Amino acid sequence: MADAGGSGGDKRMWCSIPERLQLHAAMLALQFGYAGFHVVSRAALNMGISKLVFPVYRNIIALLLLLPFAYFLEKKERPAITLNFLLQFFLLALVGITANQGFYLLGLDNTSPTFASAIQNSVPAITFLMAALLRIEKVRWNRKDGIAKVIGTACCVAGATVITLYKGPVIYSPLHRLHRPTPPMFVSLGDANGKSWTLGCIYLIGHCLSWSGWLVLQAPVLKKYPARLSVTSYTCFFGLIQFLIIAAIFERDSQAWIFHSGGELFTILYAGVVASGIAFAVQIWCIDRGGPVFVAVYQPVQTLVVAIMASIALGEEFYLGGIIGAVFIIVGLYLVLWGKSEEKKFLLLEKALIQSITEHGNTRASTQIKTSSLSQPLLPPSTENV
Fold it and tell me: Are 283 and 34 in contact (CB under 8 A)?
């Protein structure tokens, strides 16, 4: 009885927390989860995990987590599967899983977790640019929201260009690398020294383009197949098949499929369970309760957390070009998000105005009908001469 009372009290305490506060706490936890994924992925690559095997295991875990929820929660709203839908899911997987994750790992291997996270802030702007080019979204040059989105997109493009073409001098180098020996557990974890920074940035831009393309292509599919978890599960399944085929062709070392340490197993479990499972569920809840703009606003927090984590765990150095580019991208992100928010307000105002005019018109028409029916004679006038 005491236990039951205690659990009821805990539930009432949780329910008494304002939902807005719950959303902020969930979003902060989500950013820490994603930030950890950037660092863990880089650690996995530095441990020697294959860039082809890593996404295979990650997507197996993600699929096993998603399938039960997709099957039971969307049993009634899931449309019948057709060949056309399967082809669309295959294309979504090619863009959103295979290209997206493949380019990310190649880019991360040549740069650093902080700058991988920084470039990801350009995804909303690139998505807007793609939607505008495909005429899915209109560019309103005569309104402040349209101008803000265009300027924001330009800032993101400028920031990504600066990060790619200008590395610059080292602005910050962790003290433990200069004054203290590196702890044994972090010996294999370091920055991308000896790698091609420019090539890595190009791969990361390809990752952002793939991610944005996936978001744009997903919208029309979800209109015809309105079961988000099922679409994600099918996409994950086809992405897994594609990665398996690529790995079978290009990964000739059979030892690459075997875990050689607990650290390697941890990185794969973290990527599958936290980044693809728990984070996905939390993000869906936050989008449902707070909206997509609220979720996207927290993206730069992830970059800050990644910078702190990577500096402590990986001994990452920060370069002038990366910092300047990151500032441009974050400013561009907020301009695009502000433009989207203002556009939403304008559309709601426009909708309310049209509805008011329609109701007012219907009221006037109804009044005129009543008045005319009372003023008219009961018998129609005779057309015959008397």
Answer: no
| Cα–Cα distance for residue pair 119/163, rounded to 1 Å | 8
> At 183, which amino acid appears?
P
DSSP assignments along 315-352, one per residue: ---EEHHHHHHHHHHHHHHHHHHHHHHHHHHHHHHHHH
Other C-beta atoms closer than 10 Å to the C-beta of 30 total: 21
User: Are 346 and 143 spatial neighbours (Cβ–Cβ below 8 Å)?
Assistant: yes
With beta carbons less than 8 A apart as the criterion, state whether 119 and 332 touch.
no
d(CA 313, CA 174): 10
Could you give the residue ranges of the DSSP H alpha helices within the chain?
Answer: 2-16, 19-47, 53-73, 83-93, 100-110, 113-120, 123-133, 144-165, 175-179, 197-224, 228-250, 262-269, 279-290, 292-297, 299-313, 320-375
Q: CA torsion 268→273→277→280, rounded to 10°? A: -70
pLDDT tens for the chain, 386 residues long, are 445 455 555 555 555 778 778 888 888 898 899 889 998 998 898 888 999 999 999 999 999 998 998 889 888 888 999 999 999 999 999 999 999 999 999 999 988 888 888 888 888 888 888 888 887 777 778 888 888 888 888 888 888 888 777 878 887 776 544 444 544 434 444 455 557 888 998 999 999 999 888 888 888 888 899 888 899 899 999 999 999 999 999 988 888 899 888 888 999 999 989 888 888 778 878 877 777 667 777 778 888 888 888 877 777 777 788 788 888 888 888 888 888 788 878 878 878 888 778 777 666 656 655 555 545 554 444 444 43
CB atoms within 10 A of CB 34: 21
State how far the Cα of 164 lies from the Cα of 197, in Å rounded to an integer: 7
In the structure encoding, which two tokens stand for residue 96, read together? Answer: 């959103």
Between CA 119 and CA 299 the distance in angstroms is 11
Token readout for 107 is: 């880019």
